[in-house]
Amino acid sequence: MRSFSNTYIFVFSLIMVTIVAVLLSFVSTQLKPLQDMNVQIEKKQDVLRSVGKAENAGKASDKNTYINEEFGKYITESYVIDFNGNRVETDAFEVMLGLNAEIRKAQEERNYPVFIYSENGGPRKYVVPVRGKGLWGPIWGYIALEADLNTIAGAVFDHKGETPGLGSDINTDWFSEPFAGKTIFNEAGEFVSVEVVKGGADPSSMHQVDAISGGTITSKALEEMIIDCLAGYVAHFKELANN
Amino acid sequence: MSTEKEPLFSPKNLKLLTEPLGKSNPITVQVLGICSALAVTVKLKPSIVLALSVVVVMAVSNVVISLLRKMVPPRIRIIVQLVVIATMVILVDQVLKAYAYDVSKQLSVFVGLIITNCIIMGRLEAFALANRPWPALLDGLGNAAGYGVILILVAFFRELLGSGTLLDMQVIPQAFYDAGYVNNGMMILPPMALVVVGVIIWVQRSRRKDLIED
Questions:
Q1: What are the sequence ranges of the domains in chain B?
Q2: Model confidence over B47-63: pLDDT tens digits?
Q3: How far from A95 is each of A23, A70, A99, A101, A204, CA to CA, in Å?
Q4: Running DSSP on this structure, what letter comes out for residue A121?
């Protein structure tokens, strides 16, 4: 076998990494807009799913257009509030995209995006994004509230890498459907959120849903996520409900 | 290296393509690349995408390394191989994120983990470094296909028995469920993939006695 001098090895490595670096940065910059678009479409789809829309996304021939159209049609208004319920002049969608950074701040300092859903001028539903830490990575979701700002109209959850078959089931319908119809305030008007109960929820309770057996840590993390994120909306919701 | 001109699909070359599908299958015979075979085979669709990704990564890496084989200093050859594989994997990952976002989410880390798939480095080191590009391409395709076939086979059984679907379409009729049939939840968990691989190995060896070690 031929022997190679050190200089040759250095030059060879230099050329190699340069070619690779140029190639990868080129591809990355070229594909970036498409990838960002995918992330946005997914978030829009999740917002729509929480109010029971976008059900044909899987069948749509052009999913992106379909989602954008649905989102434009049903999400009539969006805004951002702070912890005290005052409006913040910033884009709700941008805040939602950066929710990961937002939840690292103290509750009082976060911005809270709200999306308002309404079909043909019918009753409004309020969709808010939630995000938190699961067992292995981030978990997130979207909770839609009825016009009374108390009853949950629907919820969807998803995760980055929870245990397959156990914690990962938070993104299934059987887990998220029971959230619909539950209330987040008790009769005295105090914020109690929804409890995720191990061993089965009490069917008569308005504030309990079933946890996932074998996925206790993820279930509890999800419960905490909802409390943590919804707490910031309490002032705003009470104000809206009183008007 | 001045051999006579061989036909492109000479028996010897063809063997490079077909042997890894059976006699020297990377998963069932060499038991390489098991990790991803266990992890992504819950559903058929991600398995097919991962199999295709491995085919692309492996074929291209094999050809690139084979083209460079006389220029690569032996002392840094492992690093060079890793750089080539890693580049290909990142490209595949980026393309999936842009054009097949849903699948790329399901595969999550496993596309990235193709880098550590022992089959690929094994073929680069054992074959591509010592052979010309055409045989290297065939060898890459053959081994990746051998890996992919098992992946898809395992996923077929796991999705069918675990979820009652194939490619997310319901294949087990509702009447079965009404009659008391229940999806086998165990099939969804990784250990059952190991059992399925084990059964495949068993079937293969019972048909090919020459594979049985004493």
A1: 26-206
A2: 898 899 999 999 999 99
A3: 33, 21, 6, 9, 36
A4: T
* Structural contact between residues B190 and B156, judged by C-beta atoms closer than 8 angstroms: no
The contact set of A with B (CB < 8 A) is: 1-2, 4, 8-9, 12-13, 16-17, 20, 23-24, 27-28, 31, 34-35, 38-39, 41-42, 160-161, 164-165
pLDDT at position B1 = 43
Contact B188 A165 (CB under 8 A): yes
pLDDT in tens, A176-235: 999 998 899 888 888 888 888 888 888 888 889 999 888 889 999 999 999 999 988 988
Question: Can you tell me which residue has the tokens 């043909």?
Answer: A120
**Cα(B139)–Cα(B146) distance, rounded to whole angstroms?**
10
Return d(Cα A218, Cα A224) in angstroms, integer.
10
Is B87 in Cβ contact with A4 (below 8 Å)? no
pLDDT in tens, A1-42: 567 899 999 999 999 999 999 999 999 999 999 999 988 888
Contact criterion met (CB below 8 Å) for B119 and B147: yes
Give kind and range of the element (H or E) at residue B169: strand B169-170
**Where are the strands (E) in chain A, listed by range?**
75-81, 87-88, 112-117, 125-133, 138-145, 152-159, 195-197, 208-210
**Can you give the pTM of this predicted structure?**
0.77
